[in-house]
Fold this sequence. Notes:
The structure is a homodimer of 334-residue chains.
Chain A lengths: L11 E5 L5 H9 L4 E7 L4 H17 L4 E3 L3 H9 L3 E7 L11 H7 L2 E5 L22 H13 L2 E3 L5 H10 L5 E2 L16 H9 L3 E4 L14 H15 L4 E3 L9 H9 L31 H10 L4 H19 L6
Parallel strand pairs in A: 1-2, 2-4, 3-4, 4-5, 5-6, 7-8, 8-9
Amino acid sequence: MTDSSREPPFIVDGLQYCNWSPEIFEEMAAGGVSCAHVTICYWENLRETIANVSAWHKRFERHGDRLLHVRTGDDLRRAQAEGKTGIVFGAQNCSPIEDDVGLVQVVHDLGLRFMQLSYNNQSLLATGCYEAEDPGLTRMGRQVVKEMNRVGLVVDMSHSAERSTLEAIDCSERPIAITHANPAFWHPALRNKSDDVLKALAESGGLLGLSLYPHHLKGKGDCTLESFCTMAARTAELMGVDHIGLGSDLCQNQPDAVVAWMRNGRWTKDLDYGEGSAQAAGFPKQPDWFACNRDFTNIAEGLTAAGFSAEEAAKIMGGNWLAFFERSFGPAAA
Amino acid sequence: MTDSSREPPFIVDGLQYCNWSPEIFEEMAAGGVSCAHVTICYWENLRETIANVSAWHKRFERHGDRLLHVRTGDDLRRAQAEGKTGIVFGAQNCSPIEDDVGLVQVVHDLGLRFMQLSYNNQSLLATGCYEAEDPGLTRMGRQVVKEMNRVGLVVDMSHSAERSTLEAIDCSERPIAITHANPAFWHPALRNKSDDVLKALAESGGLLGLSLYPHHLKGKGDCTLESFCTMAARTAELMGVDHIGLGSDLCQNQPDAVVAWMRNGRWTKDLDYGEGSAQAAGFPKQPDWFACNRDFTNIAEGLTAAGFSAEEAAKIMGGNWLAFFERSFGPAAA
């Protein structure tokens, strides 16, 4: 149990979706994790998302010594000061707002601070990265981005297609995030992002969370820490070190039925394998240097070995996300 | 009250959304209306659509002497034989199936026989006619069309955009419908259809319901019966007389708040005026020769005056819809 104040630097993970348990919360404490943005929705509608919020309320009550619900940058500073791990809610899809722009404020009230405009497929707002065509933001998409800007719900385009992502960056009056993806120049997965997207994201003040999900890594589960951190250095050259952080996409201890849900939701009767295949349909194996929340120290060391200064490494490990939270989670300036 | 058998020809309206009342049901009887496809959903989700279905169940119970719920072509023949007006349910949007391909069979079980893949805007399935871009059917759209084909839920593309419509015609293994629209060659409204669409629809065995909604008419509310029926003759030349019927889009006695709901749903905070304008935001005035269900005789006479034979006019007035219902509302042949 950790009940003493935790010193900087901050460690902030831009995305996790673990099979939450006391063991994982203990690993977060042991790894010094200040905060994680956790997914509470892939395809769930409002009511189902609220059930997932409610499940977190129970965890906060039961594990109040370890966890703190983060709604603001100040909450994150408080989690750090109290030696707890802050938890930020986010949705990987726009399904919680259903067809209703008015639900943007409702989900913000419930604590959501990130929402992807689309998840792999076409949504009512934008196009996902697995569609054959990408027409950009829809009529409703433009309305919703404006409303997200107003209330302080961050646009996340991690699973969206290229044109939709560029249009979201352009349409949004506040910086957006790509919470979990890597540069395509390093590993040309469909989910990784082009130089055009990364440059536009950085120029608009946005933030990229570098992913540790094997399908996003060069060499997948065999990717080396050195390769990952060298990629981070090249990305910092492209975007500026203030515009990158981590977004591990850690899905620890999830059964393979969960990745089937992520990919198939309720939209198809044929099985979709997403980044996997019929032969390798389950969750892929994590690299051995990042298997759980204890392993952030490996990355911090790897960043230093790749040439980042201590100050730069601290920004990537969490300082940039902290600054982003502080300027993004409240209502727009009048 | 009409309780005697009604003789052919059949009068079938491919779309109505009136503010239903005993007076309107009496007008349907007086006008000899065999059947109307009635809208039970614009933006409603499954639960809300079911409430609208339930409201119809109450009407069927209260007005059993006038109305009959039509699920099959045989039901329509029975309505005609009993001198009643058959009612077919349909959705103008795919919102009742939410994000769930499994709900296609559920809504068919509830009596829905038509479902539009999109209504003006981008949906999860296809693009609406008011979007700037039309990428065609989505991944989910292709899954849903296959499932609609399987159970016998007719694809309706009345409010969809051009490419999506052509792809729906191509993707669907059973004929589709455009229940309420006119040819753009006659009146180039955004909602009216190109020659390419009309030809592809006819070649695939589909059916076009000619609309009497003023925004779809040349001259709007001042359109003459002669102009409308001459257009019908030109459309029959283009598509073949077996591929056209009526789809009046009659919205009798609806308050203007209803057209605001149709246009704005819950997707926008800015007001959208659709085919109207800020200066003319409400329902437009009907042509005086088609103000209510009593007026189908005017159209039958107009078709004859425009050169259609009695047999051809009977097809357009209802015979074609009857044949379409008979081959479309049941499960696909094994």
